[in-house]
Write a structure and sequence with these properties.
Layout (H helix, E strand, L loop, with lengths): L1 E6 L5 H14 L10 H7 L1 H7 L1 E8 L10 E4 L9 E10 L13 E9 L8 H14 L6 E6 L4 H9 L3 E2 L17 E6 L1
Parallel strand pairs: 1-3, 5-6
Antiparallel strand pairs: 1-2, 2-4, 4-5, 6-8, 7-8
């Protein structure tokens, strides 16, 4: 299976929306399930793409078994074709704006990383994060990449740490101050 990381196309917005929503729902990451207000944000790929850069991981089988691994390449701008499927997505916020939660001056932010359940443990999430880091390095004045993560996202934490991100407990925050038990952990990577 070959994985290509590239910008999302409008034809893929629905696929990314559903993949992201299902990843968060299946992993129990939305406190209010289907009625969680954040679910609408996760599904609004057009809004994200208008304010930031949404990247997708597209898989294409090429006569290789899953045990043979994943080849990662930078790809084209085209929509997923027959025999291809979107298996991951992430929002890259290069320099603040309406999609930034915690990024300050000189910081890019990674948001809403999601990988389809059947594509996990194949390097898809790491490839999406690496693509964001590469874009941050190419952003003039960017010196750091930041992100927020839920405590339960332990697999994602391992990916971030393997890629050189470090915890920044002083930046941990609560997106819903009226609820005491929702603290997001923060990470950063100095470029």
């Amino acid at each position: 299976m070959e994985i290509v990381i590239r910008p999302v196309t409008p034809a893929e917005y629905d696929a990314v929306a559903e993949l992201t929503a299902q990843a968060y729902l299946r992993d129990g990451l939305l406190d209010f399930g289907e009625s969680d207000a954040y679910l609408h944000e996760l599904r609004d790929v057009a809004k994200r793409a208008a304010a930031a850069e949404v990247l997708v991981a597209v898989a294409k089988e090429q006569g290789r078994t899953a045990e043979q691994g994943v080849r990662l390449t930078e790809g084209s701008e085209r929509a997923a074709e027959e025999g291809e499927r979107v298996v991951g997505g992430v929002t890259f916020v290069p320099s603040g704006g309406p999609m930034a939660d915690i990024a300050g001056p000189g910081e890019a932010e990674i948001r809403m990383l999601a990988v389809a359940h059947e594509a996990r443990r194949r390097g898809v999430g790491a490839a999406l994060v690496r693509a964001c880091v590469d874009r941050a390095r190419a952003t003039p004045g960017c010196v750091r990449v930041v992100l927020s993560s839920q405590r339960a996202m332990r697999s994602a934490h391992r990916v971030y740490e393997r890629l050189g991100f470090v915890r920044t407990p002083g930046r941990d925050w609560n997106p819903l101050p009226e609820l005491d038990d929702i603290t997001l952990l923060t990470y950063e990577l100095t470029l």
